[in-house]
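Lab notebook, design round three. We kept the backbone fixed and only want residue identities now. Task for the bench partner: fill in a sequence for the structure below.
Input structure tokens:
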């Protein structure tokens, strides 16, 4: 699999383009899976009768998903010859902190926000994580400063966020802290935690790191949810399949994405992130009967996707 996903510039032209096609298809699959999470989560709320203001039950739902996702990733790691553990005591503390921020804290706000905002709007707003990452990297890494292209990309992306929050008449802003505000805060937390996770991944297997941080973060969400009176809901065959799908999409997408990043230039992979809000908004419109054809949604989607493209664009030779 690694040979297929890695791109070797010494390959013959036919093999090079075949591998490039596999890269594109794999990256698109990852973004499609991540985009499908928006309508899937909102359908999960409906199937399990979780009310928008029932935060503890939302935490239980999220905890079950990510604990299962971590377990699935550990099984994948074992199937590919990796050890179950593979980390030292100091690394465990770092991964625990990563899990509590990147999974627990982030998804508390994300699941709350998605309960109060539409799937179309949430998928656009959550894309701000890319722009937050660029801004944070400017202050943390000397080799990753803002340039003209990145600055224009960030401004374009945040302009899209502003547009999507206008009312249809342009006379007021439709923005709530519990909905849109929570989604944007979740995106910022993810951006900050991802930079921390990048430093950890330099000294351990990325798949094992992701598996354990998902499992630890999911277990913390589950414990917090039950502690505050959350319920798991009445699981049926349909809702159980949906939960398994959500867990699998996280584990499969994370595993595949980590392989793509390992064997290809980072910019060549991350540029596909602009597809996540497109898939998220489109699938929300399809499965939740939400409107994507409103002028503000279409303009915001173009601006946000264009911004992501600009900040992640690299010169590919």
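Proposed sequence:
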């Amino acid at each position: 699999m690694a040979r297929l996903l890695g791109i070797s510039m010494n390959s013959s032209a036919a093999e090079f383009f075949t591998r490039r096609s596999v890269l594109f298809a794999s990256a698109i699959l990852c973004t499609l899976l991540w985009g499908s999470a928006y309508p899937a989560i909102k359908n999960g709320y409906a199937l399990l009768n979780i009310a928008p203001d029932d935060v503890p039950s939302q935490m239980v739902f999220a905890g079950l998903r990510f604990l299962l996702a971590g377990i699935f990733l550990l099984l994948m790691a074992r199937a590919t010859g990796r050890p179950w553990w593979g980390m030292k005591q100091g690394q465990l503390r770092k991964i625990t902190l990563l899990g509590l921020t990147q999974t627990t804290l982030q998804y508390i706000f994300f699941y709350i926000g998605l309960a109060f905002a539409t799937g179309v709007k949430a998928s656009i707003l959550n894309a701000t994580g890319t722009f937050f990452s660029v801004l944070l990297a400017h202050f943390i890494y000397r080799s990753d400063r803002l340039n003209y292209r990145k600055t224009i990309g960030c401004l374009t992306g945040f302009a899209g966020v502003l547009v999507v929050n206008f009312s249809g008449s342009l006379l007021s802003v439709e923005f709530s802290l519990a909905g849109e505000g929570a989604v944007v805060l979740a995106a910022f937390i993810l951006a900050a935690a991802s930079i921390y996770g990048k430093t950890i991944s330099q000294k351990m297997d990325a798949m094992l790191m992701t598996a354990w941080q998902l499992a630890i973060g999911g277990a913390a969400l589950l414990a917090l949810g039950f502690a505050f009176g959350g319920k798991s809901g009445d699981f049926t065959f349909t809702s159980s399949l949906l939960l398994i799908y959500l867990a699998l999409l996280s584990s499969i997408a994370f595993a595949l994405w980590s392989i793509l990043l390992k064997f290809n230039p980072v910019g060549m992979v991350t540029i596909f992130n602009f597809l996540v809000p497109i898939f998220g908004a489109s699938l929300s419109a399809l499965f939740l009967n939400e409107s994507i054809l409103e002028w503000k949604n279409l303009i915001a989607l173009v601006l946000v996707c264009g911004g992501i493209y600009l900040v992640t664009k690299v010169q590919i030779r």
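Keep this in mind before ordering anything: The chain has one domain: 21-312.
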